[in-house]
Design goal:
Layout lengths: L9 H25 L1 H29 L7 H20 L1 H32 L5 H48 L5
Helix pairs in contact: 1-5, 2-3, 2-4, 2-5, 4-5
């Protein structure tokens, strides 16, 4: 007896793909939830590698078209700096995340002051300003947290993303597993 051939109709294929993607979401959710620091390191590595790849590609283009391009030294410098930046990001994940966190913290604090200003304007206009104040306090707490410990706050964000991916994966698996039973 030769191998059994399984024929799948369109709905069974959709169900299989849905369950596969749901399980993939669950796996990513667990990884994000259990290993947030490693996920941050991995994401920093990916960003660094992309920047290095860009620098190498741009450097190659400059080298190939050396005689035909204008501002060749500037473009070559950008290529070299991209390679250096990508290498720095990969080698110094903690510093990179902290610097990024400080920039995000600055924007969060600026948004907090904007919310406080808007709350004051709403109060002067006789409107409810409670949720605007709450939004300002959340922005302020987030911004201060980013200044205090950016890596920890970003790890918490990664963990929250992990919870989301885990729940989304469970919902996709459940919904696709009942797809043909409707």
């Amino acid at each position: 007896m030769k191998g059994k051939v399984i024929k799948m109709n369109g709905l069974e294929k959709i169900k299989s793909v849905g369950i596969f993607f749901g399980l993939a979401l669950i796996v990513f959710g667990v990884l994000f939830l259990v290993f947030p620091e490693r996920v941050i390191t991995f994401l920093a590595f990916i960003v660094g590698a992309i920047i290095i790849g860009y620098g190498v590609f741009r450097g190659f283009i400059v080298a190939v078209q050396w005689k035909d391009i204008t501002k060749r030294y500037f473009k070559l410098t950008v290529s070299i700096l991209s390679i250096i930046l990508g290498t720095f990001i990969i080698a110094n994940t903690q510093i990179t995340v902290t610097a990024l966190g400080i920039v995000i913290g600055i924007f969060a604090i600026l948004l907090a002051f904007d919310r406080f200003n808007m709350a004051s304007l709403r109060k002067n206009a006789g409107l409810n300003n409670t949720w605007t104040l709450v939004s300002g306090l959340i922005h302020l707490a987030f911004g201060v947290g980013m200044f205090y410990s950016a890596f920890t706050v970003i790890s918490i964000i990664i963990s929250i993303i992990g919870i989301y991916l885990l729940m989304a994966g469970i919902m996709v698996v459940l919904s696709t597993s009942y797809f043909l039973d409707l």
